[in-house]
Amino acid sequence: MSEEHAKLEVKDLVIGYGDRVVLQNLNFQVAAGEIFCIMGGSGCGKSTLLKHIIGLYPPKSGDILFSGRSIVHASTEERQAIMRRFGVTYQGGALFGSMTVAENVALPLTEYTDKSKEEIAEIVREKLKLVDLDGFGQYMPSELSGGMCKRAGLARALALNPDLLFFDEPSAGLDPITSAGLDRLILSLRDQFNATVIVVTHELDSVFAIADRVIMLDKNTKTIVADGSPEELLNNSENEWVRSFLDRDGLKRRKKKDGLI
After folding, report:
1. Residue 227 CB coordination number (10 Å)
2. What CA–CA distance (Å, rounded) separates 112 from 92?
3. Cα angle vertex 237, ends 233, 240, to 5°?
4. Residues of the chain whose pLDDT is less than 50?
5. DSSP string covering 164-230
6. Would you tell me how many other CB atoms lie within 10 Å of the CB of residue 113?
7. Angle at 124 between CA 83 and CA 105, to 5 degrees
8. Burial of 82: CB neighbours in 10 Å, binned 0-12, 13-18, 19+
9. Which of 153, 178, 191, 212 could form a disulfide with 174 if both were Cys (CB 3.0 to 4.6 A apart)?
10. Is 98 in a helix, a strand, or coil?
11. CA–CA distance, 234 with 238 (Å, rounded to integer)
């Protein structure tokens, strides 16, 4: 992939907190319109990497570029402009409990645009319809199911028509049917809007359903140990741990043996 076609490029990135290095020597690119998954075992730094990519934390060294523009070396004003091109969904939806669903979705529009109340209300209706929550605008988050909260969070993430969509464990806590519905919605959004999607997840069913490419993080080496399509890595990776991690049938057999299913 040439740099001019990369929607996201990570160069020689080192991230961590204080004196602690969480991940190092990170180099990868994400193409426009690609669904890109970040995977790895518990504690490997998946969510930490996501937080650095979207600009919540500065890296120790290296660079992160969006369409060729560095978020690391940007001025505060430039960084905020770049970040407004992101739509981010969090594990539990991260809705404000004291606000209605419609008010939650409207928040980015009231904060970052000068649109009228009528214009904002129309956009909110459009985004809620897009995630199959038409008619739920006046509900409180506490009145929604877990899956509905995640979709409401997605509607809010879509409010500013972002170029990039980020998901942090979108299927966490969802039953298989709801999770599969969310996978179909992610695919639909990519296909309708040519959105670039970056997903942090450990859910293998979702990965094989939606991912064009995957990177695998390893907490021992603190870096990327595999990069490719999930099918390619499952069948051809030279790393035995990577093949075992992606082996869904093997995982089910191991859980059954251990009495977990």
Report:
1. 16
2. 24
3. 115
4. 2, 254, 256-257, 260-261
5. EEEEESTTTT--HHHHHHHHHHHHHHHHHH--EEEEE---HHHHHHH-SEEEEEETTTTEEEEEE-H
6. 14
7. 50
8. buried
9. 178
10. coil
11. 10
